[in-house]
Amino acid sequence: MALCSSALSGAPSGGGPAPPSLLRAVQGLLLMAAVAAQLLCLRFFEGRTLPVLVDIAARWSFVRLWERSLLTSAGLLLAAGAALSGAALLAPCAGGLSATEIAAACLAAALGWAPLLNLYLMLAMTIQFCSLGLDAFAVELLNAPHLSGLVGLVGQFNVLNAAIHRAAYTVQPALTLLIALTLALAIAALVRITLPALNPALNSGSFDGDTAGGGDAVLEGGGGLTGDAVAVAWVAVLLLLGLRLLERIAVVNLKCKRLPALVHCLDFGHEIDHDRWCVAAHIAGSGAGFHVHSVLVSRGAVLKLGYVSVAGVFLLATRLLASFRA
């Protein structure tokens, strides 16, 4: 019975080591995912997809706009990475660790976040190309009645559609890794914080070693409640980044869905224009869009996922706040 109660309370039995904290578990998963993220980034930049996208963007005259949007995203991610790495100092400082251990914790956070943010930048760059490419094709459609008519529109759309499909297929493993990591960390945070029996620090609400494992339990746990708060903040950032990517993918798919209606709105000088119908039917039947494992992401699905994710984050924040006040 003593062993069972010790296991349920999360305290070590017989003076053994304390269970790892949520922050330590999150850091370990980030470091493992960072290795895979770095390999996927190297594979993308050394492959043939990026030169094809750059060539299309240059020929369609939106490469400068693509570059500016990429620089803006890189600056925001750099600031976010510095803030997330600096947040790793809170838990070691609260646990009373030495300067060497604090520096090691900050370095581990930086090594974990840098490849992941680079992976996110790669995904954002690819999705932004698809969005800007569709905008450029829409501009060509609007100018078509005054310039060349329907001549060449099908060929231009086929090139853009092939580029979007190739880009989506190339970054699919990277997107899968980011979503899988976010899901794993979110489930770990929910289980650890919402189930008090698994976290003695949340039961006691203390930072000075009043748990069943003594003072070393809090130190080994990575700063007690402060470490859990940092881990939840990291999970929330990953959720927001993932939702942002899915929302941009949904926008790309929505633009593809609206292209046939745009073609039908154009006037090429004929009240009944069979050629215009043919072009619109070709676009509608080509299966255009950014597919994720053969699934088209819709804005409705992203909104539902965002609602569930925000509710989970508020649940974790409420639980932590109640533990701090205890």
Question: Summed up, what is this model?
Answer:
With 326 residues, the chain is mostly helical. It contains twelve helices and two strands, in the order αααααααααααββα.
Task: Explain how this protein is built.
With 326 residues, the chain is mainly α. It has helices at 2-9, 22-46, 49-59, 63-87, 90-95, 99-143, 153-194, 200-204, 215-220, 225-265, 274-284, 299-325; strands at 291-292, 295-296. Strands 1-2 form a two-stranded antiparallel ribbon. Helix 2 (22-46) packs across helix 6 and helix 6 (99-143) packs antiparallel against helix 7 (153-194). It is elongated and about 75 Å long. The two termini are 28 Å apart. Mean pLDDT is 78; it is low at 1-19 and 204-223.
Proportion of strand residues:
under 5%
Compute the CA-based radius of gyration: 25 Å
Task: Report the biggest beta sheet as strand number plus sense, adding barrel if it closes.
Answer: 2 strands, antiparallel
User: Could you estimate the helical fraction of the residues in percent?
Assistant: over 70%
Strands side by side in the biggest sheet:
1-2
What is the number of strand segments? 2
> Helix and strand string, N-terminal first?
HHHHHHHHHHHEEH
Structure classification: mainly alpha
Low-confidence stretches: 1-19, 204-223
